[in-house]
């Protein structure tokens, strides 16, 4: 659909601005003569149904360089071909687009496709038309998201070059902003991920992994401390090189000494400065690194330093809780001489049951790694409420009468109250789980237990698990008021009471543990 006037305008443009040029494609090699890699080319898509327009454009812009990057041309002669190329090459920077091709508005429909269906707002669109009356500039600019409008009769070689440079510069700025926005999202997502980790090794491994993925061109990431020998000591790594380059080692030590980031062609170092711990250096090897990646890596290190400070505070709080658990456990042991060995065995059984249930994917919404790691120590507190029971009842060698049993049953509520006060509202710790266990491990699955008469899944899972382990161990060992049972009798009781006293899923898991590991001591 190219008329004679259109061809004459194109030919005239070529004569006036590119006289003597030969119609041939620009070189598109991406390797220099010495085999080194050039910067990646800009992709410019020519969409026009006239082959001569493609040839002229390549002649005029064939040797074009922008920001030390050459231009590589892609050609489409219909809007349908253009759609395929756009899908195949998502990095196209600019498009020189004709309006009238297979239909009178094929180019305009392609604009809609790019902006609305593809959602591509970065590519710069220069509309070129040889029939401006068919697509008036004012109407097109108002109705379509294009970046420039040119009539081919006015588009000299210089104006085409100027329009192309402006389009590439605009694309570069938009791409930089978008890269920064995406980078910030990755930094914040990484910071949120790291903040959720409660293990220092996991935190450090996660940091180097996220940093290596964040920086373009990085093939290794190392987290280093200052070693006693004056050399970096690697505390975490992702893609560790066979040998740390001497230049990188010197850069790391210099950064640790003054706390300043350093970037070179093949090595980037940023520093994590905590409140009360020696600094750490994050070293990226590879490159060349994009300039926009450097502040992102440094921001990640700033966030990670805060995360490490918080992790240290968490560890101290966790250690304080563990010390409190042991102290309360010793207090209960002082009141009840059978508690010491019993709680150790109980902790092992409770942990084993939780892990077995997790492996079976039962109670998946409750049974995470934290639960399994916590229940063993929290179970130590199951009978802490016995500190409030008189010794005459607690150590009575025979059966308790009805009144004495009523007093004894108070220990579940007493234990829960003590531990809830001690945990200070923290719902995710040893003391809070210990409170659940203390007040619910005497509840029964059919609702006939105490202190609240809870039934089924209304009983906290930790309490249901400890109930099975507690009864098993109590029956298997001698107490002042009873002899030890034979293990076969104990197992028969567990099976018989599944569904009434005990959660049958917990009993099944415990029997599987015993079958695999034995009853132990």
UniProtKB/TrEMBL annotation:
Annotated CDD domains: HDc, REC
A Pfam family it matches: DUF3369
InterPro entries documented for this protein: CheY-like_superfamily, Cyclic_di-GMP/3'3'-cGAMP_PDE, DUF3369, HD/PDEase_dom, HD_GYP_dom, Sig_transdc_resp-reg_receiver
GO annotation terms (biological process): phosphorelay signal transduction system
GO molecular function terms noted in the UniProt entry: phosphoric diester hydrolase activity
SUPFAM superfamilies the record matches: CheY-like (SSF52172), HD-domain/PDEase-like (SSF109604)
The protein's name in its UniProt record: Transcriptional regulator
Organism: Azospirillum palustre
